[in-house]
Amino acid sequence: MASTVSLPPADPSSSSTEDPAAKAVSKRYEGLVTVRTKATKGKGAWYWAHLEPILVRDPESSLPKAVKLKCSLCHAVFSASNPSRTASEHLKRGTCPNFSSGLRPGPSLSPLPISSLTSPSSVSYHRNHRKRSPPAAAISVLQNQVSSNGNDDNNNNSNSLAIVESTRFLGYSSHSNNNNAGLTQHHLGLSGGKEDLCALAMLEDSVKKLKSPKISPGPALSKGRIDSALDLLAEWFYESCGSVSFSSLEHPKFQAFLNQVGMPAISRQDLSGARLDNKFHEAKIESEARIRDAMFFQVASDGWKNKNCCCSSYTSTSSTTSSSCVEENFVQFSVNLPSGSSLYQKAVFTGEPVTSKHVEEVLWETVVGISGSGVQKCIGIVSDHKAKALRNLEIQNHWMVNLSCQLQGFISLIKDFSKELPLFRTVGENSLKMASFVNNNLQVRNRFQKYRMQELECTGLIRVPLNKCHCSSNIAHVSAMMEDILSCSQVLQMVVLDDSYKGICMEDPIAREVAGIVQNEGFWNDLGAVYALVKLIKSMAHEIEMERPLIGQCLPFWEELRVKVKEWCTKFNVAEAPVEKIVEKRFRKNYHPAWSTAFILDPLYLIRDTSGKYLPPFKFLTHEQEKDVNELIIRLVTKEEAHVALMELMKWRSEGLEPLYAQAVQVKQRDSVTGKMKIANPQSSRLVWETCLSEYKSLGKVAVRLIFLHATSSGFKHNWPFMKWICVHRHSQIGLERAQKMIFVAAHSKLGRRDFSNEEEKDADPFMIGREVDNLNEVFTDAP
Length: 784
What we know:
The protein has 784 residues and is of the alpha+beta class.
């Protein structure tokens, strides 16, 4: 016996008449269908009411391959070689789990569900297989079941008689034969049509409930276990942060599940009331205690750059309608501690494009709110906003080191290339012209989709940006368009070589221009070069986002980028000078003297010289960067300590760190997730200054503060459904307060697990498996 499988319906008329085997299979199938048709009319074996012939086709050739029998009750599939034997083994012997609900062949009849009266396949037979046993027997049984409930009053008797009387309207006529009651089926019809089927099923359910009125309750749980389970459910709901809606928890099926496992129903009031308040206060108290215990901290601010630009969505048409790239932003604040952990603080809304002055005020208000009167505990800010507000705060507060987000700097480099490198502009314009023409011309579009399905086994059009805005989200969509074109290079070649396209070229000059682009080998080389450079920068940006580097790593990252870009120029025969100029311009915009200072003071980057000493890597700094190190150290200490700090810096430069401790700091181990070698204990660099290098009293104060500073502002990632929900309810004070509390609880938990991922990204991972081309369709946030 075969296992239950789902097989597609087959059309015997579509089989090949040239293949003898296929023809024989089709003939066998048609014969079984004919036999079954006669049987359902009372001129054949009883089991054909439950067995249905199906034709199985070869998935490659679509030719008939075999004939199977499918049980209409349980959908099991069998060989069609011996239907009688299949019926005996599957139906008579009770193998079919659902056959007991029908009328088994034999001397005694089992009750037939009312709903089976709606299908001719529910008709059963007596043991002699010649007379139909009456489908109305089920109604008689129903009459007995209702009557046996203990209500023998006239009302119930009349109701039972009414049920029997109603058989006349179901298309049956009664007769008597050898003291055996029977019914002859003419045609099963209900006065309400197909809509009566649901009502009939409800009637059957009512009969079952009357027959078995007691429903076994779910397992009994103690109050303690119920409270614990509800707490876990609430925590899961909060931490999902919008992926699960309130209405989902009130869904009848979910409420039925809770009842089944012995838990009470839960409503949105339960989750948005006292339970949420308690969770929020617990997280808030823990967060404040950890900030108090730390000697200093850094504030991270992410979201100032608009991620929801008007052109953040793109289309497969050439629509060029443009609107203002302005929407309200959702800015979040968190706190980075010296231990390497992060704590969520709050989220605020910003309206129109904010001024540097407004950003400065919000940042300082946040610093004061976290620090209270001890504002010097906040030794710096890292933000994705423009540097002007950060510089102003740094000038006003000499102990602060305010940094632009390193991740945004790398991503903005793509925008720089798109605006300043002619190669990018040329490839972008030709790609847009090609994509718009292919998507908008009906004949060309149909040919493109035909060949794409033929070659790539997928359909769809080329993704096209909505407008020519230079915001970074639109740059991402231009990259996605290039990716589509690159993956469909062979398809586009086939389109322009098609005879129908040649006819279009005779009348349309744009078609001729597009054909010239497609057949130009130089275009494809340039497109490959642009795609490779975008992929290079994007991969490094992704690494920065995952690694969340400290500021000491900034110089090495940019040097690595320079090397890779130079290799790219050589590989694709691109002039180096213009490319290097763009890279250096972006580097200077993002550079901060703290990069060089942390690079020099972090024992992680000490280099062993010929004498065996581990010395700071001053030789990798330019003369200007060395001056930056001196000036920053002087700014971060008091005037009285400035001279001492510089003397200690000279000593550090000449003596460095004891080799054994330097080697211990630089010990690496393989990461179990990524497989890459990583520093075994990232906190060692700071701890060495606080213990082994305690003689550097002034310089050590600067070192321990700089070494732990983060170079990126990104932290807890919100799900889009939750952000949308907040935006909808932000004008309600109560709704916004609840939303802020839910964000805080969710972020506090995720950051405690050092989980910086997004559920939407996790859910997308299974669908990304097997892709040969990396997907560049991600919204690049803007940068300073």
